[in-house]
Amino acid sequence: MSFTIQECTDEDMPRAFELLSEAFGHEHPFVEYVFPAHDRPQGRRDGAERFLQWRKGDPLATNIKAVHNETGEMVGHAKWIIPKGVVPPEFELGGDYWETEDQKEYAAWIYSQYLVPRRQAFKDYGGNVVALDLMTIDPKYQRQGAGRALLKWGTDIADELGVDAIVEATDYGKGLYASEGFQVQYKWTTPTPGKWAGREAQSFWWMIRPKGGKGDES
Ligand SMILES: CC(C)(COP(=O)(O)OP(=O)(O)OC[C@H]1O[C@@H](n2cnc3c(N)ncnc32)[C@H](O)[C@@H]1OP(=O)(O)O)[C@@H](O)C(=O)NCCC(=O)NCCS
């Protein structure tokens, strides 16, 4: 089976959000808190609207999709940030999508803490780096090469620009990224201080692909 990689249009954002909801399920605290009720109709509508707003508000980001060659279906989505020497502005989580003020506050907290390594890297590199913000493949089409194709789209750009690439990897993505030259730097877990002690945190593997992709296979 093969897939074609294309740039998304605005009309692809509802499907892109559906893919996030289906690919992550309910296993990731970040997704649960930032996108409340993401598997329900209102949560899906809100998520699609937010993906569209984020897309329109971020000229440094590119949404791409993997399209199934036989059915024409969008089976995967990735968002790459390609700053080309600009340190990206830091967006805060906004909107009115949460049932309580506490849920909204914790969502904003986990969002900002999740982005700590990336924001530091953008500064350290002076924006001369490429970041994989998000990658999700329809569970029905995983392990068929769509993820690797979406990944290579961005690492090819990193190679053309002669820059490193960075990603916050889940356990599911880690092996794929390692096989394309990313190296684990450390495991990051969002802190849960004070009144949120004991609340679910989000962990990920902070990975860097040195320019040219001379990584290891670990
Ligand atoms: C992680 C994810 C994006 C990977 O996408 P994918 O399309 O399944 O990835 P690929 O098929 O390109 O490669 C994944 C693995 O399948 C293997 N594979 C590829 N084609 C295959 C095939 N035809 N048969 C069997 N295995 C295959 C690859 O070698 C790779 O193996 P690895 O785990 O040893 O690295 C996808 O599983 C996903 O959406 N997961 C949930 C969300 C998530 O965690 N996203 C990552 C955020 S950082």
In short, what is this structure?
The chain has helices at 13-24, 29-34, 41-57, 101-114, 116-124, 146-161, 171-179; strands spanning 3-7, 61-68, 74-81, 129-137, 164-169, 183-189, 203-209. It contains seven helices and seven strands; from the N terminus they run βαααββααβαβαββ.
Report on this model:
With 218 residues, this protein is α+β, with helices and mostly antiparallel strands. It has a single domain, classed as Gcn5-related N-acetyltransferase (GNAT) (Aminopeptidase), CATH 3.40.630.30. The chain is built from 7 helices and 7 strands; from the N terminus they run βαααββααβαβαββ. Strands 1-2-3-4-5-7-6 form a 7-stranded mixed β-sheet, with helices on both faces. α1 (13-24) packs across α3 (41-57). It is globular, with a radius of gyration of 17 Å. The two termini are 27 Å apart. The mean pLDDT is 96. The structure holds coenzyme A (COA). Coenzyme A binds next to α1, β4, α6, β5 and α7.
List the helices and strands and how they pair.
Layout: E1 3-7, H1 13-24, H2 29-34, H3 41-57, E2 61-68, E3 74-81, H4 101-114, H5 116-124, E4 129-137, H6 146-161, E5 164-169, H7 171-179, E6 183-189, E7 203-209
Helix pairs in contact: 1-3
Give the proportion of residues in helices.
25-40%
**What structural category characterises the helix and strand content?**
alpha+beta
Kindly state the number of beta strands: 7
Poorly predicted residue ranges = none
Strand content: 15-25%
The whole-angstrom Rg is: 17 Å
Q: Just give the CATH class.
A: Alpha Beta
Q: The CATH topology, please?
A: Aminopeptidase
The dominant shape is: globular
Biggest β-sheet: count, sense, barrel? 7 strands, mixed
CATH level 4 superfamily = Gcn5-related N-acetyltransferase (GNAT)
Mean pLDDT: 96
Name the ligand types: coenzyme A
Strand order of the largest sheet: 1-2-3-4-5-7-6
